[in-house]
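Sample A.
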Amino acid sequence: MIIKITACTLLVVLLGCILFATPVNRQKQVLESCLALASGDNAAAGSAGDSSAIKITDMYITGADGAKIKATYYSPGKPGPAVILLHQCNDNFDRKSWVPLATALAHRGIHVMTYDFRGHGETPAGGGAENPPGDADAALATLLAQPGVDAQHIGAGGASCGAAYAYLLTARYGRMKALMLLSGQLGDKGLEYLSQHNELAVFDAASSEEDTNGQVINKTVAASKNPASVATLVPNGGHGVPMFKASPDLLPTVVAWFEKVLKN
């Protein structure tokens, strides 16, 4: 027999225990306080989206050479736009570094795909390159094939080397609406691409340690003709994904930006 324990069940049990241990003359006050807290929690959950519908699935994607690439798909449980995220190349980073962002995006109705480069996480090394174009293309194709994904509203994001890979994927696909770069610098060809694709909005973030006055990120956004493009400088934020920890406002800002760009 399987017993399903919901948040409501736990609240009822907890409330009963609290009332049992509370003097009779204070039980009404405690009950009112608990109900007010529950009401507030429900309001907060409603504003963040329906998390109960989110489903996270680990899978293998087949690269162009037949290699098995470990990936994770985050489904919001309803039709909507989608984002593919490419991790940075440091030894201690893999697809799991995106869990907080991917989960937050799914809460907002956005489908997400992450995957491990070769030699990272649960994908074995091999094939001569850590992230050959065929792997990223296969991951994107798998994302686009998921039920409910709106192929007309797709975004990509990456950190450090993953930012460069995200741009290259964007250029190959040719129909991206949003590109997030964390500690990523586009070359002249990348800036030229942005200037020629007004439909592509860019979110470019870097720390003050790597882009002291924001010159690089401002140059990237200046090349974009999309009014939704944004440059964000994080004081002493580190490199790539660690900027989320250094600046707690950054992750919700990125989520809101993706939602704004991809749902319009």
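Sample B, a different protein:
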Amino acid sequence: MLFVSLKDFEERKDPALRAPALIKAAGANYSQIQEGVALPINPPSIPGLGVTSGFEMWLQQKGSGNYGQLVDTMRKIIVKAKERPELRGVAATASANSRQLLVDVDRDKAEVLGVPVQDIYNSLQTLFGSMYVSQFPKDSRLWQVILQAEPGFRLKPEDIQHIYVRTHEGKMVPLSAVVQWRHPRCAFCAGWRANRHFPARDSQ
């Protein structure tokens, strides 16, 4: 999440520099990003209170189609919804183009090498994701301490081979010795179901 502070209103007399126009322009630029979904919004003046009474709509794939077909249908609905003057900011977070990485832990080999399985999972979570450590007060705010690897060291699956875990004897073993990674055929294969069907959510 990123917050952008605008200049004083007196310095933004041009309508193109007002918040709605900037949000619209940013949305057009963000729509070109293929690696993820970015949605610019205008936060409420009072934190915790929304600026609109939005709604959500869920679609379910109950037939024999796949998740890609569900996403295509969802996109058609969004296109039609955007033609309605009473609706604004209609968007969906579902995507059939997202890649997923599955990591298999060889528990038998980890036991032979003396590597605790929990340490393997902790290393993957901390370095490729993040881990909450603690918090501390500063300048009348409460700051969180989050532990994670620098982005340049967790961009590719092959970066796993640069991570080491400690055995019961204190020796360091490369993580690649006890794990294997693969890309599933479907990015949504391991996703959750709603009433045993593929779900997709639209919101406004």
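Observation for Sample B: The mean pLDDT is 81.
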